[in-house]
Amino acid sequence: TSARKRRYDIAVIAGDGIGLEVVPAALRCLELVALRHEFTLDLTEYPWGSAYFQAHGAMMPTTGLDELAKHDAIFLGAVGVPEIPDVETLWGLLIPIRRTFDQYINLRPVRTLPGIPARVVGAGDVDLVIVRENVEGEYSAVGGRIYVGEPHEAAMQEAVFTRRGVARAARFAAELATTRSNRLTSATKSNGIVHTMPFWDEVVADTLAGYPGVSVDKVLIDALAAKLVLDPAGFDVIVASNLFGDILSDLAGAIAGSIGVAPSGNLNPEKKHPSMFEPVHGSAPDIAGQGVANPVGQLWAGAMMLEHLGEPAAAADLTAAFEACLADGLRTRDLGGTASTAEFTDGVAARLTA
Ligand code: ATP
Ligand code: MG
């Protein structure tokens, strides 16, 4: 047999809870699809997350980021357990990874899958992508409190938007729009937030001037949230700031179906640093260890990773395999079915070896 020439170094962080169940499930399918498309995935597993935190007082070792930097991509399950505050998982692992590797785009495709009707009656077939700016904006650490404990105590937090930061998010969204329907919606709030949001609008408009084929619709975030609920099929690519994108992603995901199927990519589009792919859901402590977690979100995240690595045919194959299982009525409990994680994964694996 010919040597598999294309190889990709993948850092795997299964994390906690159902991450420990859906990550191995997805890896099994990823390896099968790699075999089929004749490339190699070199997997290195890192046992970081809450167990590591309980033993060492940190989510990952101090050399963690240097370790991850050596890889082509990071495949993440879910981190966090109820006993550890979310702020530790966020600032101890997720945010340092996003910022160090300049993963300035958070990409969240939202699509109705076969056999999973949208939650909104009459929503039609939803097929949209949310492009969230992922490293600046409202999630800044600039601010603080004054007059602590006094009746006039106050807290302030600055949002920081840079021309470069907004422009590169807008550019990514515009490029994506050209591969889809050339329609872009930009989330704003320039009527109420008078400094940063007019700046966002201005830089988006300047950037989009370079894409005469792409139409851009500027919509206030409140109206956009309402429209998204009423007519999700009316959207294609949505570009939004860090906070607005965060909120819209969960909203759109909820409309399209189950939290267990939604994926996301934290991208460094230039591939100077590894990008990170993960399901949208958390560690789901309520069902962890029962073998019933839906592996679709993790599988779809795997497909996004393959796409990013430059293996679109393999990505399409993997996507088609889990979609076919869903279309056949193979469903985990969260989708009203009875299949276990292993049974669903067996179904996907069978399609990838057929
Ligand atoms: P986060 O960890 O992001 O703060 P969370 O703890 O609020 O999120 P999740 O861990 O995503 O939320 O769980 C929310 C609910 O969705 C739980 O009831 C969980 O069982 C369910 N759920 C999440 N992911 C899956 C999955 N892959 N399969 C089945 N059910 C899931
Ligand atoms: Mg959680």
Automatic annotation (TrEMBL):
It catalyses: (R)-malate + NAD(+) = pyruvate + CO2 + NADH. Keywords: Manganese, Metal-binding, NAD, Oxidoreductase. SUPFAM superfamilies: Isocitrate/Isopropylmalate dehydrogenase-like. It holds the Pfam family Iso_dh. Its EC number is 1.1.1.83. The keyword Oxidoreductase applies. It comes from Amycolatopsis rhabdoformis. Residues 9-348 form the Isopropylmalate dehydrogenase-like domain. One of its GO terms (molecular function) is tartrate dehydrogenase activity. It is an enzyme of class 1 (oxidoreductase). This is D-malate dehydrogenase (decarboxylating). Belongs to the isocitrate and isopropylmalate dehydrogenases family. PROSITE patterns: IDH_IMDH. Its cofactor is Mn(2+); Mg(2+).
